[in-house]
Design a protein that fits this description.
Pfam families: NusG_II. InterPro entries: NusG_2_sf. This is NusG domain II-containing protein. With 124 residues, the chain is an alpha+beta fold. It has a single domain, classed as N-utilization substance G protein NusG, insert domain (mini-chromosome maintenance (MCM) complex, domain 2, Sandwich). The strands form 2 sheets. The protein has a 4-stranded antiparallel β-sheet, with no helix packed on it. The protein has a 3-stranded antiparallel β-sheet with strand order 3-4-5. The longest helix has 23 residues. The chain is elongated and about 70 Å long.
Length: 124
């Protein structure tokens, strides 16, 4: 193993360590929960505020959204497969919960100045 190989390995390990520390120390922060149905935004709620919200569409389909402790989940749904409920909680920018039968998408969006992994943060 040459000196260059050692330096390259050390640099990769340091970079991996920095990325791991950043991943585990960055919390949900000031993110937003965006609820959209059929591509139209219905609600935009702060992730930092505990909330229980019954989402109902024109056909009477219901999903119970719960924001608690910096994470969001669907607690109940009347769709046939209930995959959206079994998916569990999400808490990081870019994650989403989808209820396909109800055409419902719940996404977490972070603020660009506090979360550089948000899609908007990469734009010039």
């Amino acid at each position: 193993m040459t000196k260059a190989d050692f330096l390259l390995t050390a640099a990769i390990l340091v970079l991996a360590g920095v990325l791991l520390v950043r991943h585990f120390t960055t919390g949900p922060g000031d993110g937003w929960v965006v609820v959209s149905r059929d591509g139209v935004v219905e609600e935009r709620l702060p992730l930092s505020e505990d909330t229980r919200l019954l989402l109902k569409d024109a056909s009477g389909n219901e999903n119970l959204l719960v924001i608690e402790g910096g994470s969001v989940r669907l607690e109940d749904a009347d769709c046939p497969d209930r995959l959206c409920v079994r998916q569990g909680a999400i808490s990081r920018s870019g994650e989403s919960i989808i209820c396909l039968p109800h055409k419902l998408v719940i996404t977490i969006e972070g603020r660009a100045e506090t979360d550089s992994s948000a899609p908007d943060a990469m734009l010039d």
